Amino acid sequence: MKNASDEELIARFRAGDKRAGEEVLVRYKNSVLSVARRFFLAGGDTEDLVQEGMCGLYSAMISFEGAGGFSAYAHACIKNRIFDAVKKSCTGKNSALNGSTPFNECEEGGGAQSFSPEELLLGSEAESEFFRKIKDVLSPLEYKAICMYIDGATMTEICAALNKTYKQTDNALVRAKHKLVGILTR
Question: Which pick of 12, 25, 43, 102 has the fewest CB atoms within 10 Å?
């Protein structure tokens, strides 16, 4: 199963092989988590969006027609499902997701607010300054670990990339989170 392509697994899944479907779900779990982490839920949990994303992935597995690669199709379905959930929350149709805002809308000036070029420039300068502060405060290990975590990497992937044990990696992430809270509350 591990060596089979996504498309082969989808074909097996549609033929009734539940293990093939489970393998696809496991393969794409990090993609779902990565998309879900880009949103903030006021009064909610990232897990709510992860569940929506997993539903989007399952829909992709059922509706994929074989044109193009499954990976791009699955990513689009995951993203669309999460966006739809956030849209519904904004219109009050889904009380569990009310008040959610995608981080990228805040960062890029999307949504209801529009920003002038001066505000965008000041915002990008503030963002650059924030990342300089983070680099100054965090050790190189903590910085790499937190960046990979934010990008949706699993602990196993972070450990392998940093060539550290699970405990060393977890400790670096905990230290980084504590330091970041300190920066944000100043």
Answer: 43
Task: Look up residue 153 and give its two tokens.
Answer: 């990497």
Strands (E), 124-172: none
Model pTM? Answer: 0.50
Distances (CA, A) of 36 to 56, 72, 95, 186: 12, 17, 18, 28
165 and 93 within one domain: no
- Helix (H) or strand (E) run with residue 143 in it: helix 140-150
Is residue 5 classed as helix, strand or coil in its secondary structure?
coil
User: Does any domain span residue 110?
Assistant: no
Helix (H, G, I), strand (E, B) or coil at 117: helix
Q: Parallel, antiparallel, or unpaired for β 101-102 and 39-40? A: antiparallel
Q: Which amino acid is at 117?
A: P
Is 161 in the same domain as 90? no
CATH number of the domain at 127, please. Answer: 1.10.10
Tell me how many domains the chain contains. 2
Question: Is residue 94, in this structure, part of any structural domain at all?
Answer: yes
Range of the domain at 173: 116-184
The CATH number that applies at residue 75 is 1.10.1740.10
- Reading the block at residue 149, the tokens are 């975590």
DSSP letter at 96 equals G
Nearest one of 143, 141, 144, 134 to 180, comparing CA atoms: 134
